[in-house]
Specification:
- The chain is mainly α.
- The protein is built from 13 helices and no strands.
- Helix 2 packs across helix 7 and helix 7 packs across helix 8.
- The longest helix has about 40 residues.
Length: about 250
C-alpha cells in the first residue's frame, strides 16, 4: 500500500467512524450533559486500540504469512497455535470477541432500520400508522442484517477491506452534516446532490474501475466530488431563510 493510499484510508476511516446512523439516533435520545461528557471521554477509546496494534505487530515476527489465507486469521491462528493455553481460555477470548462485535452490529443494524423507516419511507408516505412504522423497522433489521451477513461472507477479501469499503460510503454524509452545522448557505438540494454524486463515485471506483487517481482511496475521491457538488449546488439554489438559519444557530 502506497503512502497516498494509506493516508486516505486513515482519513476516510476517521471521518466515516463518526457518521454511523446509530450515533445520531443515540444523540436524539440523550441529554446535552451526557453528550458533552461523551465528547470529552471519547478520545480515551483510542487508547484501548493500542493493544490491538501490538497484536498485529507481534504476529509479523511469529506467524509465517503462508500459514494464513487472510490477515483476518492472524489473531485466531496465534491463539490456537502459539498461545498454548487451555480450551477454556479460547472460549473466553471467543466470547469476548463475539460480545464486542454484537455491541456494534446490533446498534448499527437498529440505527439503519430506524433511518429506513423514519427518514426514507415515512416522508414518502406520511399517513403510516405507528404500528406500520414499527413493522417496517423490524423488517429493516432483518434485511440489513442479512445483507451484512452476505457481504461479510461473499463480498469482500477480508474484514479490513469490508470495513474500509463501508467507510467509503458512510463518510459521504460528512459535507451535509458539517455543512448544516457551520455553513448558513448550505441547502437541502446541495446536500442531496453531493451525497448522490459522492456515493456513485465511490462505488464506481470500488466495483468498476481497476485503479484510482494517485492511488487514493475510493471513498476519499467520492468525498472530494461530494464537497464540490455540495458547494456548487448550494450556491446555485435558494438559501434557507435568514430567520430560520439564525434560529437554528441559536438552538
Amino acid at each position: 500500500m502506497s503512502a497516498m493510499a494509506y493516508s486516505t484510508v486513515i482519513l476516510i476511516s476517521a471521518l466515516g467512524f463518526l457518521m454511523w446512523p446509530h450515533l445520531f439516533t443515540k444523540s436524539y435520545s440523550t441529554t446535552e450533559k451526557r453528550i458533552k461528557l461523551t465528547t470529552l471521554a471519547f478520545p480515551i477509546f483510542g487508547i484501548f486500540m493500542v493493544p490491538v496494534l501490538f497484536i498485529g505487530f507481534s504476529g509479523i515476527g511469529v506467524v509465517d504469512p503462508e500459514a494464513l489465507d487472510s490477515s483476518d486469521e492472524l489473531l485466531p491462528y496465534m491463539i490456537t497455535n502459539e498461545l498454548g493455553a487451555s480450551g477454556l481460555l479460547y472460549g473466553l477470548i471467543g466470547a469476548g470477541a463475539l460480545a464486542a462485535a454484537m455491541s456494534s452490529s446490533d446498534a448499527i443494524t437498529h440505527g439503519g432500520a430506524v433511518s429506513l423507516g423514519r427518514d426514507v419511507i415515512y416522508p414518502l408516505k406520511t399517513d403510516l400508522s405507528d404500528r406500520a412504522q414499527i413493522w417496517i423497522m423490524r423488517i429493516g433489521v432483518v434485511v440489513i442484517g442479512l445483507a451484512a451477513y452476505l457481504l461479510s461472507i461473499f463480498g469482500s477479501e477480508g474484514i479490513i477491506a469490508l470495513l474500509v469499503g463501508a467507510y467509503g460510503s458512510i463518510s459521504q454524509f460528512v459535507p451535509a452534516v458539517y455543512g448544516a452545522l457551520i455553513w448558513r448557505r448550505a441547502t437541502k438540494a446541495g446536500a442531496i446532490a453531493g451525497l448522490i454524486v459522492g456515493i456513485a463515485v465511490n462505488y464506481y471506483y470500488q466495483m468498476i474501475a481497476d485503479s484510482t487517481p494517485l492511488d487514493m482511496n475510493e471513498g476519499f475521491i467520492g468525498l472530494i466530488c461530494n464537497i464540490v457538488v455540495f458547494v456548487a449546488v448550494s450556491l446555485l439554489t435558494r438559501p434557507v431563510p435568514a430567520e430560520l438559519a439564525e434560529e437554528y444557530r441559536k438552538a
